[in-house]
Design goal:
By secondary structure, this protein is mainly α. The chain has 2 helices and no strands.
C-alpha cells in the first residue's frame, strides 16, 4: 500500500510540475485512492 501511495504522489507531482502547477495533497483522499484503485493513473 505504501508503495502505491508513493507512486501516486510521485506521478502526480511530476504531472503537475510538467504544466507549471503543484499538488495540494490531502492524506484522506490519497488513502482512499490508494485503496480503491490497483493501478492509479493521474490526469490533468
Amino acid at each position: 500500500m505504501e508503495e502505491r501511495k508513493e507512486n501516486i504522489v510521485r506521478d502526480s507531482t511530476s504531472l503537475a510540475e510538467g504544466v507549471g502547477g503543484c499538488i495540494v495533497m490531502d492524506d484522506n483522499l490519497l488513502n482512499e485512492v490508494a485503496n480503491l484503485v490497483e493501478a492509479p493513473l493521474p490526469v490533468v
